[in-house]
Every structure is written in structure tokens, then in C-alpha cells.
Specification:
Helices cover about 45% and strands about 10% of the residues. The two termini are about 35 Å apart. The chain folds into 2 domains: about 210 residues, P-loop containing nucleotide triphosphate hydrolases (Rossmann fold, 3-Layer(aba) Sandwich); about 50 residues, no CATH class. About 5% of the residues have low confidence.
Length: about 325
């Protein structure tokens, strides 16, 4: 049966979860219909507020995400969640741990939760996340939460995809210094010290505040990231976290930073698609006479590899 993309998109925009899931599956599978899907979604995107949640394993990202969903639903917001799980080394599929932990929202028609396999992609995100984000955006979700894998020092990619990035830490895990080394403290718009009922919470908040102050080079009017204490498993501090998100969204809008971030996000998406297409074309050149001739010239010392690569690219485009 031929795929009716227009009908699928229309049903997704009406809030039908099966249609939303089908569209994201087409994205993940790199379907031949993907270009048609993206063209159909384009006029309907750009309205959702995207929040990324990142942090080291064990800080409670999934519990915090679930608590945020509940808090946002109390405000009447429709919420989409992309939970990027580590891939199974056997099947390549997501382990689905995040979706299991968010089962309390499974029967809510205004919440859509999708686990996505990272499939070895570095940066804490699945390669298909930007396009899946477009699906949820076009489907009319007010807020989209992206929860990253939890691989510690390679999660900074989320900052390029979210309007607001929340960095989660927890006391007693020794992740404060590690996060600083990774540069993860440079990407946060809001910081949440989860499990704040544990011993050492005060010290973690103090250490985090000191780290942020040491690295602060902000002009008047720049955003200064707040630190919120939460106990997500008991929904404590979640309203304060949502208030911090709302405040940051207001600042983004007032300063024009929201438009700048989204412009950069789209530019990065276009670049990634173009690079992927180019790589596919280059992949077909193994054994091609043009590539072999250039390799011979480099070996003979007539060309350096950079000039050879330039010539190859010029022949491809």
C-alpha cells in the first residue's frame, strides 16, 4: 500500500499518537519518503518550546523528566518527550528504560513519549533527533522535552538542539568537577541539583555556584543561570524548575536570542544533511578512477591530500 504522507501528517496534527509514531519511525528508518514527510511538516513547525535535559548517569534525568511532564500538564500544556536511550549492542534498538519509568503518563492523550536509540551516535543524542523534533513540533506539542543518554562528558550537543538546556547534578556523585572538565557547565541555562534531600546537597549547590561564578564573563543583561533544588521522585522543586524555564523563555524572546538559537539549529541541521549526502556520494567512489588517480598523484608527491580532497569535492558538486 502506498504511503499517504499528507493524510499521515494531518492525523498527526490532530493529535493521533499512532500517526506521530509512524512519522518518527519513518525518520529513524531513513525512509525514502523522508523528504516528502519533511516537506509536509515544514509549514507547521516552529511553535514548540524545546527543553533539553542532560547530566551524568544516576542524577535522575528520567525521574525529573517525568516530574516535569506532570508539572507541565497541570498547566494544561501538551508535552512531547524524546528519551534517547543507549543502544542495545545486539539489536541496535533502544533499551527503553526511560519509557518504562514514565508509564504514569502512558494513558494521557496529551503526552507523547518516544524512546530513541542513540545507535552509537556521540553527543548524547540520536542522529534522527532533529527530524523527530520536527514531527512533534508540527504535531502541535506546546513543550518538547529531550532527555539525553547520560554518558557524562559527551552530552554538550544538546545545547545546539534545545531552546533551553537544563543540566542536572546530584550530591554525593562526584560529578561536579567532572562536569566542569567536560565543559558541561558552559552549556546550561538552568541548573538543577536533584536528590536535594541527601547529605551534601548544600555543598553541591555551593560548589556549583562557585564554578559558575569563576567562569562567568557576562555583560549586563546577559542571562545568569539559576540553580534550583529538586527532589524529583517526590515532585519537590518541580514548580520552581518550571518557573525558571518560563523565566528563561521570556528572556530568550525579549532579547531575540530565541530566534538566533533556532536559526543556528536549522543551519546545523542543513549542514548535517548536506554532509551526510556528500559522504554517501563519496562512499560510492571507492574504486572510481577519479579517486584512484588523485591517490596516485598524492603518492607521487604531485599533490597533498588537502588539494586532492578539494579537487575531488569540486568534481562531485
Amino acid at each position: 500500500m502506498a504511503l499517504d504522507v499528507a493524510d499521515l501528517v494531518e492525523r498527526a496534527r490532530k493529535g493521533q499518537p499512532r500517526a506521530v509514531g509512524r512519522l518518527i519511525s519513518l525518520v529513524e528508518d531513513a525512509s525514502p519518503a523522508l523528504r516528502e514527510v519533511m516537506a509536509a511538516l515544514a509549514p507547521h513547525s516552529g511553535t514548540s518550546y524545546v527543553v533539553g535535559l542532560t547530566g551524568a548517569p544516576g542524577v535522575g534525568k528520567s525521574t525529573s523528566t517525568s516530574a516535569l511532564v506532570a508539572g507541565l500538564r497541570r498547566q494544561g500544556k501538551r508535552v512531547g518527550v524524546l528519551a534517547v536511550d543507549p543502544s542495545s549492542p545486539f539489536s541496535g534498538g533502544a533499551l527503553l528504560g526511560d519509557r518504562v519509568r514514565m508509564q504514569e503518563h502512558a494513558t494521557d492523550p496529551d503526552v507523547y513519549i518516544r524512546s530513541m536509540a542513540s545507535r552509537g551516535h556521540l553527543g548524547g543524542l540520536a542522529w534522527a533527533t532533529p527530524q523527530a523534533l520536527r514531527v512533534l513540533d508540527a504535531a502541535g506539542f506546546d513543550v518538547i522535552l529531550i532527555e539525553t543518554v547520560g554518558v557524562g562528558q559527551s552530552e554538550v550537543e544538546i545545547a545546539g538542539l534545545a531552546d533551553t538546556t537544563v543540566v542536572l547534578l546530584a550530591p554525593g556523585m562526584g560529578d561536579g568537577i567532572q562536569a566542569a572538565k567536560a565543559g558541561i557547565l558552559e552549556i546550561g541555562d538552568v541548573y538543577a541539583v536533584n536528590k536535594a534531600d541527601r547529605d551534601g546537597a548544600d555543598a553541591t549547590v555551593r560548589e556549583l555556584g562557585n564554578m559558575l561564578a569563576l567562569g562567568e564573563r557576562r555583560a549586563p543583561g546577559d542571562w545568569r543561570p539559576p540553580i534550583v533544588r529538586t527532589v524529583a521522585v517526590r515532585n519537590e522543586g518541580i514548580d520552581e524548575l518550571i518557573a525558571a524555564l518560563d523565566k528563561h523563555r521570556g528572556w530568550l524572546t525579549e532579547t531575540g536570542e530565541l530566534t538566533r538559537r533556532r536559526h543556528r539549529r536549522v543551519a546545523d541541521e542543513i549542514e548535517a544533511i548536506a554532509v551526510t549526502a556528500l559522504r554517501e556520494r563519496i562512499g560510492d567512489l571507492h574504486g572510481d578512477q577519479r579517486l584512484e588517480a588523485l591517490a596516485d598523484r598524492v603518492l607521487a608527491g604531485e599533490l597533498d591530500p588537502y588539494l586532492a580532497a578539494d579537487e575531488l569535492v569540486e568534481n562531485l558538486v
